[in-house]
Amino acid sequence: MDKIMDQTVKEVTNSFGNSINYDATISEIIKQIILERGIEIVKEPKVFCSILDDLIPQARTERTVIRRILTSNLELCDKLHSLYSMENINKEIELSQFKYLMKNNCGISDEWIEISTSAFFGAIELKNNYENQGDKNKDEESGLLDEWKQYEMGYKYEFGIGCEQDYLKALNWYKKSAAQNNSWAQNRLGDIYYNGNGVVQDYYEAVKWYKLAVENGDDTAQFNLGRCYYDGLGVQQNFKCAFDLFLKSAQRANSETAKKYASFYLAFCYENGLGVKEDCINALMWYRKSADAGFGLAEAKYCEVKEKYK
Predict the structure, then answer these.
(1) How confident is the model at residue 212, as a pLDDT?
(2) 218 closest CA partner among 270, 167, 262, 153
(3) Structural domains in the chain?
(4) What are the CA-CA distances from residue 227 to residues 2, 141, 232, 294 (Å)?
(5) What's the CA gap between 76 and 61, in Å, rounded?
(6) Is 181 left (phi over 0), alpha (psi -120 to 50) or beta?
(7) How far apart are CA 120 and CA 42, in angstroms?
(8) Contacts with 151 (C-beta within 8 Å, 6 or more apart), sequence order
(9) Is 249:219 a contact under the CB 8 Å cutoff?
(10) For residues 6 and 15, what is the distance between their CA atoms, to the nearest angstrom?
(11) In percent, how much of the chain has pLDDT > 90?
(12) How many helices (H) and strands (E) does the chain have?
């Protein structure tokens, strides 16, 4: 095991401390790993299995089967990822599809197909029961019903405001709010995936959420999506698209991000002819706006461009 994986296993097992009951079912252990590391762990089968090796060394046969299932079948990992992410599933249909994938790709006996299916689906049910009960309690205690209160809960968990920081819970609350077309929540989801906070970094997923937020008129998301087009992250690099988004964001300027950074990037595009014809007058104007909003680098660029075009 390489140093990175060894450190990952050590961190996870230390964080569990004495919370693992070695007589617990495989389902319970799988659920605890997913609750601790987040759903993205099922897309890292080697790390997932190494954690299992460390937590239940005595269950050699079970570990061997689960390792074979996860490492031999990426399609199955994707399926598990989607199942754990769903709030409601048609169990009969999903069970059938799951067994089919195992039977055709993993080379294990029918008996072990049944055991493994029960373990993974048992973990899904435990996870859903845990989340549903937690959500129910919070809703009853705090009246968290509308999209903005859901967004606020996500924000608190993301940054550990008045509670322990928990990206998985933040993700869940943001998704509830985003499902009601809350652009702030959609933008925060984009940021979480863009930065890889508590999830595997995924620029394509980030772009998906940024686009939804842009559709709902969020000027911060306009800048963030523009940055993705500018750098070619999650989308094909396109300076014209980046420029258009920076312009929309800077013109609206409802957020600090738009006032400082969208204006700065817009000025930089004008200065260097990226996605637009080079224009020092507009470059100076937008650097000035960014500097006036408090972005120090914009002040330096304003002076630089002004001196250059004297």
Answers:
(1) 96
(2) 262
(3) 3-135 (no CATH), 147-217 (1.25.40.10), 232-310 (no CATH)
(4) 34, 40, 8, 20
(5) 20
(6) left
(7) 11
(8) 173, 174, 177, 182, 184, 185, 188
(9) yes
(10) 14
(11) 38
(12) 17, 0
Neighbours of 161 (CB within 10 A): 10
Tokens 């000035």 belong to which residue?
Answer: 288
pLDDT in tens, 239-275: 999 999 999 999 988 788 888 899 999 999 999 999 9
Residue 229 exposed, middle or buried by CB count within 10 Å (0-12, 13-18, 19+): buried
| DSSP designation for 261 | I
Angle ∠(172,83,50) on CA atoms, nearest 5: 90
Structure-token pair, residue 196: 């890889």
Residue-wise pLDDT for 71-125, tens only, equals 666 666 666 666 655 555 555 566 666 666 666 665 666 666 666 666 665 555 5
> Containing H/E element for 82?
helix 74-85
Tokens of residue 200, six digits: 């595997």
